[in-house]
Write a structure and sequence with these properties.
Blueprint: E1 2-5, H1 13-29, E2 34-37, H2 44-53, E3 56-58, E4 69-72, H3 79-87, E5 91-94, H4 98-112, E6 116-120, H5 126-131, E7 137-140, H6 146-149, E8 155-160, H7 166-177, E9 183-186, H8 192-205, E10 210-214, H9 220-231, E11 235-239, E12 255-260, H10 266-277
Parallel strand pairs: 1-12, 2-3, 2-4, 4-5, 6-7, 6-8, 8-9, 10-11, 10-12
Length: about 280
């Protein structure tokens, strides 16, 4: 099997920073002393390695003992969560991606300037849940009833979940602009690293018979990339590791493309490519 790799793939700088901060915190405070408030990133393999190194994880701030250090994951947290951690006397290591922090700052600024803030994103995604804690925000996404979700306001300020595709965000903005707002301010909060990976994946789709998108099944940017490849007309499989590969996936195919989400480590990619090439 001939295998082609996307030119842009795998870890982004935000993920690398979060992992380095987690590893440094464990090295400084000792195994078992640092508790991540949810998965540091959306990749089970990386999270598993961090846990083996001594990083604990909790989904509930109230269960973290006062003598522990709390790690804020790359997706960020609400200001209320940060304040509650400080009030409980917990030391904080903030691994929030700088681009997520920017989205948080933009939302606050738009609200202070008098805009009704709208975020295009998945309301159940941890990044979105964190961002909307910084100001009153209306969250919309594909399938949202704009008439019900966006009552008439004269001034709208629009941001987007960092991992969304530019095409999807543009489509949503176009629908909003069909309504009679006096002023609409759009701030681009999309992650360029994610966009580059999407563009590289779509370019590769035209050169292969089948695409493999590697990464966490709960990773928003990986799911979005798989969706884009599928919509481009190339048979696409979103899997986490080689263990999920099945020979039927390449039946009748001669060339496979491989890319990976921004939370997928290079060792997962290389293992997959090496084994696929032997098929």
């Amino acid at each position: 099997m001939k295998v082609k790799l996307a030119t842009s793939r795998g870890f982004c700088f935000g993920v690398e920073d979060a992992i380095e901060l987690a590893e440094a915190a464990v090295a400084t405070h000792g195994p078992g002393k640092v508790v991540a408030l949810g998965p540091v990133i959306h990749n089970k393999q990386v999270v598993g390695k961090l846990e083996q190194a001594g990083l604990n994880q909790s989904g509930d701030l109230e269960t973290i003992e006062p003598d522990k250090v709390v790690l804020i994951r790359s997706h960020g947290a609400t200001p209320q969560t940060m304040q509650r951690a400080a009030d409980r006397g917990l030391a904080i290591v903030d691994a929030t991606c700088v681009l997520v922090k920017r989205a948080q700052d933009v939302v606050m600024q738009l609200h202070e300037e008098g805009y009704h803030v709208v975020m295009i994103g998945d309301p159940n995604h941890p990044e979105v849940k964190g961002v909307i804690g910084y100001a009153p925000v209306t969250v919309i996404d594909e399938g949202s009833d704009l008439e019900a979700a966006l009552p008439y306001k004269e001034r709208l300020g629009i941001v987007a979940q960092t991992t969304h595709s530019p095409e999807h965000v543009a489509q949503m903005i176009a629908k909003i602009l069909c309504r009679p707002y006096r002023e609409v301010k759009i701030v681009n909060t999309l992650c360029l690293e994610v966009t580059r990976r999407q563009e590289a994946a779509l370019a590769l789709c035209g050169e292969v018979d089948v695409m493999f998108v590697l990464g966490g099944l709960n990773s928003a940017n990986t799911r979005e990339m798989a969706r884009l490849c599928q919509e481009a007309g190339t048979q696409t499989y979103h899997i986490e590791t080689w263990e999920q590969f099945e020979p039927r996936m390449i039946a009748g195919k001669t060339t496979a493309g491989v890319t990976a989400g921004a939370s997928t480590p290079e060792w997962v990619i290389q293992e997959f490519v090496e084994k696929l090439e032997t098929m």
